[in-house]
Amino acid sequence: MGEWLITWKERGRSGPVHDSFLWRHDRLYVMDNHRLALWCWWQHLDNDPRGWNFLHIDRHYDALWQRARPWIKHHNPSHRSDLSSFRQAKFSEQGEELELYRWDVITSALLTLDGDKIHNWAFATAGEGEPPPIPDLQTIDPWNLPARLRWMAKPSEEDLSSIIDIDIDYFTHFDDDGLFGRVFSDQYLRELGSALGEGLTNDSFGVVTVALNSSITGSWQLAEELCWALLEGYPSLPELRAGAP
Predict the structure, then answer these.
(1) I need a surface site. Which of 2, 9, 101, 125 has the fewest CB within 10 A?
(2) What is the domain extent for residue 16?
(3) Hey, which bits of the chain come out as E strands?
(4) In this structure, is residue 107 part of a structural domain?
(5) 37-50 pLDDT, tens per residue?
(6) Is residue 96, in this structure, part of any structural domain at all?
(7) How many domains does the chain have?
């Protein structure tokens, strides 16, 4: 059985900080606002003292505030353990109150607060935004992503567990007519989804986060369509879909 950590009551506009839902089944988390992924990673980060691999699949790097790094001063341990504290965390900058955790800073926050726990960083993006300052950052092209994910999913006692982070906006593009469209086929999404299932079953993937991010994919309809195709083979998908408003 899955768990609704934030009940899905509306198809609201996520924006940088608004959260419409968060659902969990074991080590798979599905949400609308990508910022919640950081809190999800924190629920598992201390489970493996050897450290982690990290794979970020997203149109964007989500690595703003690299120089300001407000988390050094304003992070509180309660933000890791308590979801409400995480969602309500704020700080003041030049008289303006800002949310400490936004959808476009999650990799910067992870690098700042827990960078010593991530041994290998890999990014499959469209190159939007500024990459995080990681010397050995690996870049994965879309045509190599399914094979890379399948390779990471294979069980190995020598390999570290992996955090797999997916923003559905990676699978979309923005047309010159102002509309969003799909970049990849259902078959491509199913291949990725199959690898996700294998990695979760083999415990190669210590946590998987999937963000619908409807504000950036253009619509809830397209975001859900892509997410359901990605998670098509996951046994608890009907439960997740049944919880939609």
Answers:
(1) 9
(2) 3-91+102-242
(3) 3-6, 22-25, 28-31, 52-57, 90-93, 96-99, 118-124, 138-139, 161-167, 172-174, 180-182, 205-211
(4) yes
(5) 999 999 999 999 99
(6) no
(7) 1
